[in-house]
Structure formats: C-alpha cells, structure tokens
C-alpha cells in the first residue's frame, strides 16, 4: 500500500512538471508569451506559381509591364508586429533583389521593428491608395509613379513601401495616405516610423536601396528602391 501511494505521488509530480512545461510553450508559432518569446525569423523565396500568376494578371501585372512575371519571386516570411507578436507576411519582388530583401527583413525582425501588415497588393485590387490606407507594407505593383508619368520602380519589383501611415508620401500640401498627417513631425518618433540613420535606413542602404525620405520633393518616407534604368 505504501509503495502504491509513493508511485501515485511520483506520478502526480511528473504530471505537474509536464503540465508546467507545456504551459510554457506558446499556443502557436505566430505568437509571443508574457516573457516575450517569439519564433525565429523564417523566410522562403519561391518562383511565382501558375495560381499566383493568375491572381496577379490584370491586377498587379498586365501585358506591357517592364518585367515578365517569371522574373518575380514570392517571399513568404514572418515579421514583428505592433502587438509584439510574430506574424506571417508576403512580398513579391524581383529575383535580383529577393535575397537582399530577406536579409533586410531578418535584421528588422531581430531588432523588433514593428510592421503593421505585409500583404500582396492583390488583396487591395492593385490599388496603391487602398494599400496605403491599410498601413500595408508591399512591393511589386506594375503602375505609374504617384501623380502620373512613367513606370514606378514598384513595377520592376525593386521598391518596397513600409508602414505607409507612419511613413507618408508628402508633396507640398498633399499627404498620402491622409492618416499620415499625424506623423508629419518626424522628430516625434512613434513605433513603426522610419527616421534617418535608424536600423531600417541603414539595413536597406547596405542592401543597395535608397530611401525616399532623403528626397526633397516628394518626400516619400515609406519608400525604398533600387534605381533602375528605363
């Protein structure tokens, strides 16, 4: 009888230890616990599948665009959110910059730079305005430069816009998106804002991108690009 009681007690201890161990594991790989645990950064670069190409044609890509779909790549990766948790996102970029883009976002992830969301422009019907209003981080979109004219560098898959509300496009009195007016004072730094010399600007510069925040007119705080020859 004594031995059975001892074994029962041992089982209870083991059960308690096991329960405590399981409780310490986050409920999902896309979350962070109270101690700030996050999954490691992960990224995958893939060719554009026939299914994704079908989604893109007539929305973000159309005949006459400066790059063929086969020159683009889909990056699936996680990013640090404003809620402190890890979230999955997607970017479509040119194959020539894909690896460097992953390196940049890996650096931002481990420096806990918050990104609101990272969704392909197809989720917004190809509308840059709708994507900006959603504070979305995106890359490829075959379209004219803002205000009209030639192809935007986004049309080549070599430009990325990050946290568009916290980092608006500014030209004179025009602010895009309109919600970005709250962030025009660039010395009053809020989470998600990009400022000269920070980890975002430095990481992109190391990867060969220039920052629209260094321009004079327009000033495009959200925008990073690798210049292209037309």
Overall 3D geometry?
A: globular
Give the H and E element order.
HEHEEHHEEEHEEE
Strand order within the widest beta sheet: 1-2-3
pLDDT average, as an integer?
87
- What is the number of independent domains? 1
How much strand? 15-25%
Task: Output the radius of gyration.
Answer: 22 Å
Derived structural class: alpha+beta
Q: What distance lies between the first and last C-alpha atoms, to the nearest angstrom? A: 87 Å
What percent of the residues sit in helical stretches (DSSP H or I)? 10-25%
Enumerate the spans where pLDDT stays under 50 for 5 or more consecutive residues: 1-29
Number of β-strand runs: 9
Total number of helices: 5
**Major beta sheet, specifics?**
3 strands, antiparallel
Summarize the structure.
This protein is 24% helix and 17% strand. With 230 residues, the protein is an alpha+beta fold. The protein has one domain.
Secondary-structure blueprint of this entry?
Elements: H1 2-23, E1 43-47, H2 50-56, E2 72-80, E3 86-94, H3 98-110, H4 128-133, E4 159-161, E5 169-171, E6 174-176, H5 199-206, E7 210-211, E8 219-220, E9 223-225
Antiparallel strand pairs: 1-2, 2-3, 4-9, 5-6, 5-8, 7-9
Helix pairs in contact: 3-5
Signal peptide: 1-29
Keywords: Signal
InterPro entries: Peptidase_M15C, Zn_M74/Hedgehog-like
